[in-house]
Amino acid sequence: MAVVFVPTCVVVLVWPGSVAADQLLGVGAIVLCLAAWIGFRQHGGGARRAWLFVGVGLTAWLAGDAAYLVVPATPGTEALSIPDLGWLLGYPTLAVGIIRMVRLRAPGQLRDGLLDCLVMITAALVAAWQFLVLPHTSGMRSSIQMVVQAFYPLADLTVFGAVILLVMSPGKRGVPSRLLISGLYVQLAGDLVFDVVPWLLPHLPLERLYLIPAAANCLLAAAALHPGNQELTEPGPLRSQLHPARLIFLGVALLTTPAVAVLHAGGSTGSRLVLFAATVVIGGAVLARFTYAVRQQETAQRRLAHQASHDQLTGLANRQQLAARLADALTSARSGGPSPAVLFLDLDGFKPVNDTYGHAAGDAVLVETARRLTAVVRSGDVVARLGGDEFVVLYTGAAVADPELDSADTLLRNADAAMYDAKRLGRGRWVMYSGGELAPAV
Fold first, then answer.
1. Cβ-based burial of 207 (10 A; exposed 0-12, middle 13-18, buried ≥19)
2. Cα–Cα distance for residue pair 177/170, rounded to 1 Å
3. Please, which of 34, 100, 170, 180 could form a disulfide with 223 given CB 3.0 to 4.6 Å?
4. Is residue 216 domain-resident?
5. Which pLDDT tens digit goes with each residue over 270-280?
6. Is 9 in contact with 214 (CB distance < 8 Å)?
7. What is the average pLDDT across 222-239?
8. Hey, is 51 helix, strand or coil?
9. Cβ-Cβ contacts under 8 Å for 97 (sequence gap 6 or more)
10. Chain-centre distance of CA 198, in angstroms?
11. Strands (DSSP E) along 67-218, which ranges?
12. Using CA atoms, how far apart are residues 227 and 281, in angstroms rounded to an integer?
């Protein structure tokens, strides 16, 4: 993409509006469309359908650009122009493709994101209507052109909403995701610049600003061509924590409508500033209170999750977490990873400690045993307490288990049998269960 983008930057900056600049911008748009269709061909199922909408949306934009070179849109005309058809079709189609990606990344997890997206789109709609739509359409006599000019900022909002969902959805945040999100943000920023600059600076030439969509095309094409682009449609783990960026977006959305109302209210400038400051303080206080309540709930959920998966006395993994970690280890081994081993052990002479010194002393022995076991294992190994004085160590990389034959229950049962066989033969012994037989005690 740098092969296309760098010459485009040079030509657009040195010879803005030239035929060569237009040709290079067109080449960049064509490369982007081809990249999207390559992404479509590389995937199957739901991912293929998502890339289909992305490809159609980008192709519609390219068609609008091509039509503009042949039949330029004339401001103030009574009919919808041919370039407008391509451009306006591209926005919702691209948004549908992005939303399909989000649905694949976060199956069944979009309710919170949709609510946040609705809040932010509503706030953005208020601002866009007040500062973009009304100034552009106030002097138009053609109702069709008024609708068309009003639709462009609203079409940007559809893509904006899809991008917000993508940013807030679970899933990997590797290079392809960053490229896609950056490209979409740059594209939206470019549309905003082209909407605002003619209104604020009507005599400023816009030819050099075409570097913005060129940069967006480069980023989007790089995302589509990246070898790891499957992460754009792969499911991700559920996020249990409220991201700070979401709070910032919600705070801005909360203040948008009151800010617009204050700016257009009557009275002196001083009174409007006081109203705006009061709005900011109240909105910030409400948002802070909401944040504090959410953080309290997240802390309580983490505490409950820890209690459900850990032994309360020693803090080690409990039977439930051990079974889950062992199942994961077997799954990894079937895919070529290291095979796990299970060490089942208990304490010799533990019952007399309880009988002689009481349960508090027995608990202290268990806690110290847990500390010593944790200290001697590797960081990736799991130490669990199943109850009483029974402990289990899940060790990976020993090449003991046969992942094609053994299950988590089988490994635990066999290790338990080996432990009791060693216990039957006397203290300080260990027995290995291998190939369906108990090895001699050591």
1. middle
2. 11
3. 180
4. yes
5. 666 776 777 77
6. yes
7. 80
8. helix
9. 50, 51, 52, 53, 54, 55, 56, 57
10. 35
11. none
12. 47
For residue 246, how many C-alpha atoms fall within 13 Å in the half-sphere facing its CB?
Answer: 19
Look at residues 394, 400, 401, 399 and name the one whose alpha carbon lies nearest to residue 378: 394
Residues 405, 363 share a domain: yes
| Claim to verify: residue 252 and residue 401 sit in the same structural domain | no
Over residues 40-68, the pLDDT tens digits come to 788 778 888 888 898 888 888 888 878 87
For residues 107-121, average pLDDT: 75
First-to-last CA distance in the chain? 65
Check whether residue 135 and residue 183 sit in a common domain. yes
Same structural domain, 141 and 95: yes
In the sheet that holds 340-346, the strands lie side by side as 340-346, 390-396, 382-387
Which tokens go with 187?
């594209």
| Whether residue 84 has pLDDT greater than 60 | yes
DSSP labels, 206-244: -GGGGHHHHHHHHHHHHHHH-TTGGGGGS--PPP-S--H
Contact 391, 342 (CB under 8 A): no
Domain final residue, candidates 237, 260, 288: 237
- The rounded distance, in Å, linking the Cα atoms of 3 and 58 is 20
* φ, ψ at 53 (rounded to 5°): -65, -40
Is residue 148 in some structural domain? yes
Distance CA 122, CA 437 (A): 68
The rounded distance, in Å, linking the Cα atoms of 5 and 422 is 71
Entry pTM: 0.61
Count of other CB atoms within 10 angstroms of residue 46:
14
| Boundaries of domain holding 282 | 240-309
* Type and span of the H or E element at 394: strand 390-396
Q: Please check whether residues 395 and 251 belong to one and the same domain.
A: no
**What single-letter amino acid sits at 116?**
D
Record the tokens describing residue 227, joined without a space: 């070898």
In the structure encoding, which two tokens stand for residue 392, read together? Answer: 């289990």
Residue range 398-408: mean pLDDT, rounded: 70
Name the residue with higher pLDDT: 49 or 433.
49
Question: What is the torsional sign of CA 168, 174, 177, 178?
Answer: positive
Secondary structure class of 378 (helix, strand, coil): coil
Q: Which residue has the higher pLDDT, 202 or 42?
A: 42
Q: Which of 202, 198, 214, 188 is nearest to 65 (CA)?
A: 214
